Amino acid sequence: MNLFWVLCALLANHWCLGDDKDSELCTSTGELPAPDLFLNATSVPEGEIIAVLCTAPSEVMVTRFFFCKDGAPISFKKATSQNARYIVNALPKNTGQYSCGYQQKDAKNQEKTSALSVAQDLILQSGSNQKIIYGVVGVTILVLVLLIYLLVKKVLCRQLSSRQDRVNTEHIPFDYVEETAVKDNSRNLASEEVQYATLMGLHQTVRSPHRNTETTTYASVTPLYMQPA
């Protein structure tokens, strides 16, 4: 029974990674022109899905594609067109240098291998940058909420104060208002009379200046008679 599972494991490994020659594909120089490798992103946050696209020259009949990571084969794709796609989940274990190649079988069933594509690096963005961004966004939202709360509170306080003043005015008795108005008018009249009296006193003082009296003194003159010679 154990031998059965061992055989199944060996067969599965053969179908997934091929024979021992396949392990050398990612280090060989190859005989055919190199394909092109494209990554939709090379620096991504953790958890993103990355598509690795391998495209062979149009004049070549491709049998299968293979993808390499850090110099080791990770996937084989049967060719149905001139390109193949490999999906990578952006995790720390999947970061590294990716490349690809293809194989071709001729009429004599001879297999030829291409040169490897130019390698592309897959890098995860630092988690600290994401934390900083999330922190800034969180603080901004809190500040906006606080400002809106203070603004609404200020408006409500103004409305409440205005309403309270209106209620207090409506509850003042009419007799009290009339009596207060009469007292104010009497106080104003008394003030005006005092001011008028003061002004009249000043007017009389100004218009009655002190007059200097001039006295003419007449001296009696006795005529002098001439004495006889």
TrEMBL record:
Gene3D superfamilies the record matches: Immunoglobulins (2.60.40.10)
Where are the bilayer-spanning segments? 132-152
The positions making up the signal sequence are: 1-18
Report which superkingdom the organism of origin falls in.
Answer: Eukaryota
List, for all copies, the residue spans of the domain called Ig-like: 35-117
Cross-referenced InterPro entries: Ig-like_dom, Ig-like_dom_sf, Ig-like_fold
| SUPFAM superfamilies registered for this protein in UniProt | Immunoglobulin
Keywords on this record?
Membrane, Signal, Transmembrane, Transmembrane helix
Please identify the protein, giving its name as recorded.
XP_028558288.1uncharacterized protein LOC114581819 isoform X1
